Amino acid sequence: xxxxxxxxxxxxxxxxxxxxxxxxxxxxxxxxxxxxxxxxxxxxxxxxxxxxxxxxxxxxxxxxxxxxxxxxxxxxxxxxxxxxxxxxxxxxxxxxxxxxxxxxxxxxxxxxxxxxxxxxxxxxxxxxxxxxxxxxxxxxxxxxxxxxxxxxxxx
Length: 155
Prior knowledge:
The chain is α+β, with helices and mostly antiparallel strands. The chain has a single domain (about 1-115), classed as 3-Layer(aba) Sandwich (Aminopeptidase), CATH 3.40.630.30. It has helices spanning about 10-20, 40-50, 100-115, 130-135, and strands at about 1-5, 55-65, 70-80, 85-90, 120-125, 140-145, 145-155.
């Protein structure tokens, strides 16, 4: 079973680990790969995403089978698209166990409970996760040389 857990401030070390891991962040090559997340930025990030999340959601995915955090899910409002944008990051060590699919379902359920009508993601054109989104009821809105925009209506 997979459950959403709001991390404590000192647990952001997991997020730092995932964002700095080349294998976990391989999907992000188009936008630079790994992402720095230094400890001095944790408090301000935590304030925006956990304590006072304005049109945002963030949670770790905890696997009861693994007895460990296996990744993170989030969404946020993106003004340029005028859409809620999803994000699912699964630790490379736990990929191909169904955690991405389960996490995406939990994320959609959360957005639906919050009253959002749809959720989207702009996925790099070469990212194989697009098939997971399509299998979970997302459809392609558009594509260009860089991204495939997918959307799911939350009924």
